[in-house]
Design goal:
58% of the residues lie in helices and 0% in strands. It is mainly alpha-helical. The chain has one domain (18-83).
Length: 84
């Protein structure tokens, strides 16, 4: 028998893996805090690590929209647009 252990952790401290790591690397700490607020509203009972990681991996366009971008590609390219 095993026991589930839940812990509170800020997204800025979370260690993403696989595709979620690629999503998170484009986000600032301020943006992660904004996303955290959305997730707390959507998942009031919290998420386990795999659910959180999968959300960042597969819902990158949703994350970008929450931050005011058309899609995640626009978020990734924002620095290039600033240079023009």
């Amino acid at each position: 028998m095993s026991m589930k252990i839940y812990k509170e952790e800020s997204l800025t401290d979370f260690e993403f893996w696989s595709g979620a790591k690629d999503t998170a690397k484009y986000l600032t700490d301020e943006e992660l805090t904004t996303i955290e607020s959305y997730l707390e509203e959507l998942f009031p009972d919290g998420m386990d690590e795999t659910e959180l990681n999968d959300f960042f991996w597969f819902e990158d366009d949703t994350i970008a929209e929450w931050l005011g971008y058309e899609d995640f590609e626009a978020l990734m390219n924002r620095n290039e647009e600033d240079d023009e």
